[in-house]
Amino acid sequence: MTEAPSNEPNPAFIGTVSSVVALVRDENGRILLASFSANGPWSCIGGGVVDGQDLASAATEFARDDCGLTVEVGDVVAELAGDQYRVLYECGADVTWVATVFDARLVAHDESAPMLVNWFSANELAGIELDAFATVALADLGLR
């Protein structure tokens, strides 16, 4: 198994980072988001992938390892890229995230994982704190 990249930005890095999102929705159209705190900010389920890593496998691994979710990923619903996904880190790294978004179905949830998860309706999304990536991604997906 390949190791996930470090969460710490490399100050010498300038370029793009491939990432994945598992977009988990229920039968009522609610979206499952993750956070380290019940107060947010709330994030999409996913993260950066290592070169050569299978994207669908990466999406299921992030869901499991970070959130305790067992998900089945389906079709790619979007490829998100552009200046709105550029992050200039304080350390000097200049990173543009390119995200492959997979439709995903929740199979099981182990609540002992490090991140909390919660369902949000379209109306609720307007009233919660989202991280910068989730703010742009959910808007680009037409969900906020």
What does this entry show, briefly?
With about 140 residues, the protein is an alpha+beta fold.
Distance between the termini: 35 Å
Structural class per helix/strand content? alpha+beta
Share in β-strands: 35-45%
Order of helices and strands: EEEHEEEEHH
* Mean pLDDT across every amino acid position: 89
Helicity level: 10-25%
Q: Find the CATH superfamily.
A: Nucleoside Triphosphate Pyrophosphohydrolase
Number of domains: 1
What is the overall number of helices? Answer: 3
Task: Please characterize this protein's 3D structure.
With 144 residues, the protein is an alpha+beta fold. The protein has a single domain, classed as Nucleoside Triphosphate Pyrophosphohydrolase (Alpha-Beta Complex), CATH 3.90.79.10. Helix content is 18%, strand content 38%. The chain contains three helices and seven strands; from the N terminus they run βββαββββαα. It has helices spanning 55-67, 122-125, 132-140, and strands at residues 14-24, 31-35, 46-48, 69-80, 86-88, 94-109, 116-120. The strands form two sheets. Strands 1, 3, 4, 5 and 6 form a five-stranded mixed β-sheet that branches. A two-stranded antiparallel ribbon has the order 2-7. The protein is globular, with a radius of gyration of 15 Å.
